[in-house]
């Protein structure tokens, strides 16, 4: 990927040791799937957004510090189990899983939670006020779950990838990618304030549609083209490595590459 203008300047400064990278914020994103046929949910970030404007992305966003709240209702693999799966400490793992479920609810209206460990809520339309309060951070996800007698269903998520924004960027995220199936009875709806369009599409169609796709989204979609069903996806065992595109100079031009990482 060529690095024109200011990005090229920042790349040269980074390689010369003149640029101190900004810290990457912990984040989570979820490739939400439905079938048949196998499709993935994408939203297009509004043109007014400061980061990745116009890009088609999966629901996701930064960790809220309150996502690490220890008393959250929880079902499925424990935070300690997730710490192993995500190669992270337990508090970080808990935060990432909570952020994945919270952001999916905020940006699609889909909630991976239930009244008990063996069920998922069939409808979320009655919680619109709570969803807006979550988006504005007036309400914590732990308080939302507790107020409605819900437990987070961590078993409905599967870790899929790990990408870190290049060090040349002024906004950086350390993002864990998950996959999840659309729960029976629930429906996505156009609810995201950060998005101006949403779409269900097959991974292959998304790759050939002409959509603006960031490298992590493009790579994730490409890996999903190998599967025909959600069961196949969850039966898969992806090799998760940390990918952080890095700048190099080639023929006098600065470019961004992931060579040797994926």
Automatic annotation (TrEMBL):
Keywords: Hydrolase, Magnesium, Manganese, Metal-binding. One of its GO terms (molecular function) is hydrolase activity, acting on acid anhydrides, in phosphorus-containing anhydrides. Transmembrane segments: none annotated. Its cofactor is Mg(2+); Mn(2+). Residues 23-225 form the Nudix hydrolase domain. The keyword Metal-binding applies. InterPro entries: NUDIX_hydrolase-like_dom_sf, NUDIX_hydrolase_dom, NUDT19. The keyword Magnesium applies. It comes from the Bacteria. It comes from Herbidospora galbida. This is NUDIX hydrolase.
């Amino acid at each position: 990927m060529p690095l024109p203008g200011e990005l090229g300047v920042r790349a040269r400064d980074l390689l010369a040791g003149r640029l101190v990278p900004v810290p990457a914020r912990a984040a989570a994103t979820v490739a939400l799937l439905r079938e048949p046929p196998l499709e993935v949910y994408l939203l297009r970030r509004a043109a007014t957004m400061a980061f990745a404007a116009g890009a088609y992305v999966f629901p996701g966003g930064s960790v809220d510090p309150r996502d690490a709240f220890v008393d959250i209702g929880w079902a499925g693999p424990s935070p300690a189990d997730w710490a192993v799966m995500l190669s992270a400490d337990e508090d970080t793992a808990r935060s990432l899983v909570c952020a994945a479920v919270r952001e999916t609810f905020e940006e699609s209206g889909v909630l991976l939670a239930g009244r008990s460990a063996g069920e998922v809520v069939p409808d979320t339309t009655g919680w619109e006020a709570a969803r807006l309060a979550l988006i504005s951070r007036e309400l914590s996800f732990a308080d939302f779950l507790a107020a409605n007698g819900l437990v987070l269903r961590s078993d409905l998520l599967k870790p899929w990838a790990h990408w870190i924004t290049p060090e040349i960027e002024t906004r950086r995220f350390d993002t864990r990618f998950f996959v999840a199936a659309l729960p029976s009875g629930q429906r996505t709806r156009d609810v995201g304030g950060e998005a101006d369009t949403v779409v269900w599409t097959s991974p292959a169609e998304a790759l050939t549609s002409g959509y603006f796709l960031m490298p992590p989204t493009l790579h994730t979609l490409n890996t999903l083209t190998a599967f025909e069903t959600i069961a196949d996806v969850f039966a898969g065992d992806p090799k998760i490595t940390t990918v952080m595109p890095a700048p190099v100079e080639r023929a006098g031009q600065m470019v961004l590459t992931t060579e040797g990482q994926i």
